[in-house]
Amino acid sequence: MNKIANTESTMRIHKVSLLPERRLNRRNFCATASAAAVAALLGPHARAASQADTSPEKNPGLQTGNGEWTYRVVSGWGHLPSGTAFGGTHGAIAVDNAGLVYVSTQSDTGVLVYNRDGKLLRTIAADYPEIHSLVHAEESGTEYFYAVVQKGTPKENWLFLKMKTDGTVVQKIVAPPEAGFKQPNEWRITAAVPAPDGSILIANGYGDSRIFRFDKAGNYNGSFAGKGDADGQCNCCHGMTVDTRYDQPLLFVCDRENRRLSHFDFDGKFVRNTTFHLRRPCQIGFHGDYAVISELEGRVTILDKDNTPVAFLGDNPHKNQWANYQVPPSDIAPVWFSAAHGCFIDRDASIYVSDWNETGRVTKLARLIA
């Protein structure tokens, strides 16, 4: 059997015009996310789902969400050819201008490339089997991915890559000596994004939670944030994106172990914490004024422009499956997530999610239009 190996832009914001901050009161948030509320949000099929009926073929109409954010699971999307396996999914999902879907894996195939219907077309970046984040960008008419790699070639681990959509690498950044690292494993990066001025921001989420700035040529320009729970600090700055929903763009950070989201300007100045009491947020996608957040503890959350939850998707009631890397995908009902890690929402508002899972699990949710 041909089984894939299992291996694990600078502008100072003088005045930020944002909608008034709406911090979530813990009591209100918990009430919203209570079991009763979740049961109401999930459709009747989802409430009835059990370990005995987890086959997608038997439940093509499983639904999750609420209101305009009601979704159905697309049965069988992303299944691999017979005799192959993902080799683990601890990474990201991105979409190019043509609508092709890129899913990173923990295997020597690197990144799987699917069409919108879930047919595997090709693989790229085979030299980099553990790409943790993928952010699509178009520059001067050429499409790129900004990626961070946990495990790559024998000599190149924990590095930033800028590559074309065919996997051709055009730039690499490794741990900068100027950052003051003293031990080999202090540089353990989790995310990278291009700033509006073309500079590059890289998050050391599995390290000291600093966010590093580089110019577009890869020259080191300093850092901000750092590990802690005070305003302006992070405890695992896991995922990042550029938030353009307001008058001026901001850096939006998943502060995973502090269970919150934070805004910074592109000089590294802390702006505000936006959303609290999340289930270890991992990555962020946008659809208009709405944000989609993957949460490692079995859920995807939709936020409005005030960064207040308006819908929960795939909310898994089995806490023993939350953030469980070893749970077999066959034990997870199709409508639920175990450890939502990678996420992307496309122009049609379809949502793609990869669970952190040693076997590999990818889900497509299609929006139901009333």
Protein topology:
Blueprint: H1 26-32, H2 35-41, H3 44-48, E1 63-66, E2 69-73, E3 93-95, E4 101-104, E5 111-114, E6 120-124, E7 130-139, E8 142-151, E9 159-164, E10 169-173, E11 191-194, E12 200-203, E13 210-214, E14 220-225, E15 237-243, E16 250-255, E17 260-264, E18 270-275, E19 281-287, E20 290-295, E21 299-303, E22 309-313, E23 340-345, E24 351-355, E25 361-367
Antiparallel strand pairs: 1-2, 2-25, 3-4, 4-5, 5-6, 7-8, 8-9, 9-10, 11-12, 12-13, 13-14, 15-16, 16-17, 17-18, 19-20, 20-21, 21-22, 23-24, 24-25
Description:
With 370 residues, the chain is mainly beta. The chain has three helices and 25 strands. The chain has helices at 26-32, 35-41, 44-48, and strands at 63-66, 69-73, 93-95, 101-104, 111-114, 120-124, 130-139, 142-151, 159-164, 169-173, 191-194, 200-203, 210-214, 220-225, 237-243, 250-255, 260-264, 270-275, 281-287, 290-295, 299-303, 309-313, 340-345, 351-355, 361-367. The strands form six sheets. Strands 1-2-25-24-23 form a five-stranded antiparallel sheet. It is globular, with a radius of gyration of 19 Å.
Primary descriptors:
single chain, 370 residues, mainly beta, 5-stranded antiparallel β-sheet, 4-stranded antiparallel β-sheet, 5% helix, disordered N terminus
Please state roughly what percent of the residues sit in beta strands, choosing from under 5%, 5-15%, 15-25%, 25-35%, 35-45% or over 45%: 35-45%
Largest sheet: 5 strands, antiparallel
Task: List SSEs in N-to-C order.
Answer: HHHEEEEEEEEEEEEEEEEEEEEEEEEE
Task: Classify the helix fraction into a percent range.
Answer: under 10%
Question: Cα distance, first to last residue?
Answer: 45 Å
What is the average per-residue confidence, as pLDDT, rounded to a whole number? 86
Strand order of the largest sheet: 1-2-25-24-23
Structural class: mainly beta
Task: Indicate the overall shape.
Answer: globular
CA-atom Rg in angstroms: 19 Å
